[in-house]
Design a protein that fits this description.
The protein has about 375 residues and is mainly α. It is about 70% helix and about 5% strand. The protein has one domain (about 20-365). It has helices spanning about 10-20, 20-50, 55-75, 80-105, 125-145, 150-165, 170-185, 190-210, 215-225, 230-245, 270-300, 305-330, 345-365; strands at about 105, 110-115, 120. It is globular and about 60 Å long.
Length: about 375
């Protein structure tokens, strides 16, 4: 079925014929999986908190239209507009992230959220996609003109972002942003000496976090030696996958979500494993892999360094976040409170991912060129 004619010159027609439809379809299927799993996983959590049965599902579904609209509208933009949007949003959310240190609501020992008018927003979530695009811009301008100190500006911005996240504290997001930034710096032509230096700094930072931050040390120790502490959530998570087998127990028939505190957020993949089985989990993994591989495929066809670095950053960030969540859930790495993109419950996460994927869809569209 043809939605738009090729002779149609409207903005939506041009978008339809230039957007990467494999990428778009994969993202929409992930969103659909997220909607189904939120309905499956969230009622027991709501019941434990004395909320309405579908409290979390209704809130998530309220954000979905806004998220999809954001993704489509952003994907209609040209690269130069993406750069401007990312810069303005980055400045805005840096200011909001700073304000969390003074006005933020403390939840589970961290001040990452700002509450107003009945809604709670986590500004740092929006730093991930916007910083990736701003960093790509600075690195590309540096490579165009070596007299422009784009790499120094980017280092300063990275130090500022990392410092804000560490002091919240949010070491998981710091690690993701650091990995993406390091990858972009490497692709931009970082000398080998600095590659080694950056790697040393990252490793040293990880070691310092392990030695000085109690909950980081506890999670690593419990991963290496399960008998060294409480592993209740990961034990229940692995039990969920065992119960599910190949085809699962059936929608709504899982038991582990009734005793797993974060079944609708950090451990929603375990709910998928129990109720829908290994086949469904492999399907979800395949969707994430399609987004990542399709993004990299488009990236390596690019002649424009800004687009190459921005797409590389956005795709790496998306894939890395998914890998961390699923690896934590299956005990392949220490547990980390990180959402599974578009699937875990969370309005800030959903909207920030929509912004990031909108920028990715825009930058991977087929175009004859343009002034960046």
């Amino acid at each position: 079925m043809v939605i738009f004619s090729r002779v149609d010159t409207s903005i939506m027609s041009r978008w339809w014929w230039t957007v990467d439809r494999w990428l778009l379809t994969s993202i929409l299927l992930i969103v659909a999986c997220g909607a189904i799993l939120t309905l499956a996983a969230s009622p027991p959590v709501a019941a434990r908190l004395d909320l309405g049965t579908y409290h979390f599902a209704i809130r998530q579904f309220a954000y979905l239209p806004l998220a999809l609209l954001t993704m489509i509208v952003v994907s209609l933009m040209e690269p130069v507009m993406i750069r401007r949007l990312a810069t303005l949003a980055f400045i805005c959310f840096i200011a909001l992230t700073i304000s969390t240190h003074f006005l933020g609501a403390e939840i589970k020992g961290a001040s990452r959220w700002i509450s107003f008018a009945g809604f709670t927003i986590q500004p740092s979530e929006f730093l991930k996609p916007t910083f990736a695009v701003v960093a790509a811009w600075m690195f590309s301008e540096w490579r165009k003109d070596n007299n422009f100190p784009g790499h120094y500006i980017c280092v300063a911005l990275f130090v500022m972002v990392a410092a804000l996240l560490v002091t919240q504290p949010d070491f998981g997001m710091t690690a993701v942003i650091s990995a993406v930034w390091g990858m972009q710096f490497f692709l931009a032509g970082l000398p080998v000496f600095f590659v080694v230096l950056v790697a040393f700094v990252f490793m040293s930072g990880s070691m310092i976090a392990y030695l000085t931050v109690d909950h980081v040390k506890s999670r690593v120790d419990r991963f290496l030696d399960p008998a060294s502490g409480d592993n209740y959530q990961i034990t229940r998570s692995l039990e969920a996958f065992q119960n599910g087998g190949l085809f699962g127990t059936g929608p709504g028939e899982g038991d582990i979500k009734h005793v797993l505190p974060d079944a609708h957020t950090d451990f929603i993949f375990a709910v998928a494993g129990e109720e829908f089985g290994l086949i469904a989990c492999l399907f979800i993994i395949g969707l994430f892999a399609t987004v990542v591989l399709r993004g990299f495929s488009r990236m390596f066809r690019e002649d424009n360094l800004f687009v190459l670095l921005a797409v590389g950053g956005l795709v790496t960030q998306f894939g890395l976040q998914a890998v961390i969540n699923m690896a934590s859930t299956t005990h392949l790495m220490p547990t980390k409170g990180m959402t599974l993109p578009f699937i875990s419950y969370g309005g800030s996460s959903l909207l920030s991912l929509a912004l990031g994927m909108g920028m990715l869809l825009s930058l991977t569209r087929r175009r004859a060129g343009g002034d960046l």
